Structures are given as structure tokens and as C-alpha cells.
Amino acid sequence: TDASSYDPILGGSGADHALLWPIYDTLISFNPELEPQPGLAESWDFPDDKTMVLHLREGVTFQDNTPFDAEAVKFNIERVNSEDSTVSDLKNVERVEVVDSLTVKLHLKQPDSSLLLALSDRGGMMVSPTAVKKYGEDFSQNPVGAGPYKMVKRIPNGEVEYEAYEGYWQEGKPYLDKLIVKIMSDENARINALKSGEIDYADAISAGNIQSLENDSNIVLKDVLPVRIPIIYINASMPPLDNKAVRLAILHGINRETLNEGINFGRGEPAMQMFPSEYWASDKNMKIEYDPEKSKQLLKEAGFESVSFTMFTNATNQYIKAAEAIVGQLKEVGIDVDLQPLELTAATDSFFTEKRAHAHYSAWTGRPDPQMTINYLFSKDSFFNTGGYSTPEIESLISEAASTYELDERAELYKKISRKAVLEEAIAIPVIFEPVTSAMNQKVKGFEPNRLGKPIFSNIWIEE
Question: N or C end: fewer C-beta atoms under 10 angstroms in the chain?
Fold first, then answer.
């Protein structure tokens, strides 16, 4: 899909990043495992748990040749936190202090361990203050960042053309003079274009199409099991899902192994929590037992002779196929689900904003930092926790994790939160992890998938 907006603070789609990253470098970067790396900030430190100091790179310019400096960072972060912005990841930043031209101090309202990697997301994408002032509301049509490529042409929902920015701060990059991205929503069209040589790279190849491409010697496949995860969002304020026994009956009534075989052809992973097993924040010992008898017993003990509820899903083949399988499995334990497929935007608005259904089978697109995922899915005040359900213990653990900066300590806290929020309370129900697979011809080099599951094009070169 095309980006929902080429202004980082206005877009709302998790698919935007691949088209924004060529234009906008971020304050913090990350490696394929989503560990923080230097970006436009070459280093950082935390003098205390409510202060973050960023040390910026010298000699960086935006694509309009204006300087990237501390004043530009202050402008950007205040813009991210303005009323015009859809980005909430930096709301804990109370004040931005310019110490000198290459040093910025962020004063926080409260400790926030997610802040570092939040600065690798939209909140850390640096736009040119001069260009924002020049173009005003038209900035998204004239985007200017400090990234490796300038956007020089765009046909909405058709094609985006980027050219190398000659003044880019990383010497020798970008490798390509030009990058053309074609918007092809149909997967078969992408595959055919790749096979014919019309394009060099195609993204988001489903498990069902991988086998045919594996047998083509001209094509290279690269995949990753991302932090993106299809889940059942629950509105725990609506009967009967306000009853924990019903939520737990759903949790144990889903055969994730069968779904992984049927949907992913065994290439994914049954989801036992909100993080894939190889991710640093996951609990490798946590398991959701598939136990239909337990589901029936839970309903019986809670006094339910029958249970029914409405579930939305996105109206695409992949979602409908998985959702129908879930409906069939739950029927076997005495739970009737009225499945209603809706177009993506309509489903999102109807469930999260208008709260018109008990549940919604859709993807959590993942975030660079696990604290962001925990906050969004399990905090009682989160938009994505539709029923606003949590417990004092879970809220306390979330706050403790936010104020803990040591990685090992954070990982232990996320394990506790996962067990409480999923195994004990079923605030949201993980289903399966689906691999993200990219296909490219043999001459494409340098592409490396990452756990976010969103492609980064700035490292690509062509071997001739």
C-alpha cells in the first residue's frame, strides 16, 4: 500500500515506515533484532530515570541543505507532541532543552524505558523545520528529511520515485542513484512482476506462495518472524466477555498448532504470548495449553449453558480463513461466534472507537520496544484495550517496567506481565505468529529483514 501520509506525524498505518525511512533518518536506529543503535544521535545517556541526553552527529544536513542540530530536534519533538500529531509515543517528554548545538536534554514526566526505541519510530523521524514552515499543510506532498533519499515524484497509489541525496551524512551511502517503489496491492501481481523482471524486489509474500518461488533459481527469499502478531482483541466490558471464565475458555479452546499448519503451512509459530520465542522480551517457558475439556469445564463452573458473541475481522482472505477456523474450534467447546468481516478501516473504527463488537481478530503490528506493546495492549487506559480492563497488579508491573532501564530486569518484568495479562486474565488473546517473507532477484544485495517486519531499503545495492 501507499503511505497514509508522507508527514510522519500524520500517518496512521503500520505499513508506512518502508516508504518514510528512505526520506527520514531517525534519532535512534536499531539492528535486525530491534536493539537500539546510533542514528542521528551518535550516543545517549540517562543522568537519572527522568532525563535523557542525546548527543547529535556533527555536519548532518536536511535534504534542503539546512542544518540538522539541537534546535531542529527540539522543533521536531514539540511537533510530535502537538495537537496536530497522531503520534503519542513521546507524550512522557515534558520539556526539550537545547544544551548546545549538538546536545539535547529530554525532561520526562515519569520514567519511560520505551523512549529510546520510540525515537526509532515515527517520533524520531526528523523533518526539516524550514520545509515545514515553507510548505505548511502541504508538507506531506513536499517531504524533506535527513535520510538517504529525496522523494522526487509520486503518483498516489501508483508509484513513488526517490533519488539519492548527495549530501547524506553516511559516506558512500546510499548505494543506489534511484529507487522506484511501485504500489501493487495484489500479491500475484507482485510475484508476476518479479518473475518477469519488471521489479527487483517484492514484499509480503504469503506462506501459500513461497513454495513456487523456492523452486525458481533466479529468486532469493528472506524471511523473519516479526513482533507483528494476529490476535483476538477483547472488549472485556461487554457480557459475556466481562466474565474471566469465558475469556479463558476462548484462550484454551484455540488449537494454535493446527492454525499454524493451516494458515502458515507450518512456517510460523503458535503464539503463546505477544512476543515471538526468539525475541529478548519473550518467556520461552510460557505455554497456552489447547484444552477443549478445560474450556467446557470453565464455562460449566461459571454457570454458562451456552455462550455467544460477535467478532469482527478484516475482510481479506488470510484473516477470514484464520477467523473461520477459530470460530469452528470454539464451536466445539460450546461457544458460538457471529463472525463479521469488515473492510480494514471500518473494522478498526467499529471495534476500537464505536465499540460495536465483543471481539476483533486482527493484527497487532508490533512496536520497536516491548514496553510500547505492553502499554498499548494491557494498560487500562489504552485505546487498544477496548474494554479498559486490567488489574492493579498488572498496572503496577507495567509502571515498574517503564521505570526499569536494565534489559535483563525488563525481560523478567515482561514475563510476569505476560503471564498475568494473558494466562490469568486473557485481556487479549494471542493466536499465531506469521512469517514476513521478502522475495528478490539474485542481483539485489544488502537486504536484511528485521523483527519489526518492515523493509529497510537504504542498505540495498545492485550487483551488475
Answer: C
Looking at the DSSP bridge assignments, the partners of residue 37 are 29
How far is Cα 445 from Cα 463, in angstroms, rounded to an integer?
A: 7
Segment 309-335, tens digit of pLDDT: 999 999 988 899 999 999 999 999 999
Cis status, amide bond into 240, omega within 30 of 0: yes
Inter-CA distances, 362 with 260, 323, 344, Å: 16, 9, 9
Give residue-wise pLDDT tens across range 413-460. 999 999 999 999 999 999 999 999 999 999 999 999 999 999 999 999
Alpha helices (runs of H) in 81-202, residue ranges in sequence order? 115-118, 129-135, 187-196
DSSP notation for 179-234: EEEE----HHHHHHHHHHTS-SEEEEE-HHHHHHHHT-TTEEEEEE--S-EEEEEE
Half-sphere exposure of residue 369: CA atoms within 13 angstroms, side-chain side:
26
Q: Output 347-356 pairs: Cβ under 8 A, ≥24 positions apart.
A: 347/312, 347/313, 347/314, 347/315, 350/312, 351/233, 351/235, 351/312, 351/386, 352/233, 352/383, 352/384, 352/386, 355/235, 355/237, 355/238, 355/386
Q: In this structure, is the dihedral angle defined by the CA atoms of residues 261, 365, 323 and 333, taken in order, positive or negative?
A: positive
Half-sphere exposure of 56 (CA within 13 A, CB side): 26
Q: Say how far apart CA 260 and CA 277 lie, in whole Å.
A: 15
229-234 and 428-430: which strand pairing?
A: antiparallel
Residue 275 grid cell? 512476543
Residue 436 carries which side chain, given as an amino acid letter?
A: V
Q: What whole-number distance in Å separates Cα of residue 298 and Cα of residue 245?
A: 6
Dist CA 40 CA 55 (whole Å): 9
**Residues paired with residue 53 on neighbouring β-strands, in sequence order:** 45, 105
Q: Which residues contact 352 (CB under 8 A, 6 or more apart)?
A: 233, 360, 383, 384, 386
CB burial class (10 A; 0-12, 13-18, 19+) of residue 205? buried
Amino acid at 200: D
Q: What is the residue type of 442? A: Q
The answer to whether the predicted template modeling score (pTM) of the entire model surpasses 0.85 is yes
Phi-psi region of 385 (alpha: psi -120 to 50; beta: other; left: phi over 0): beta
Q: How far is CA 215 from CA 206, 210, 220, 263, 438, in A?
A: 15, 9, 10, 21, 15
Q: Would residue 42 be called left, alpha or beta, if left means φ above 0 and alpha means ψ between -120 and 50 degrees?
A: alpha
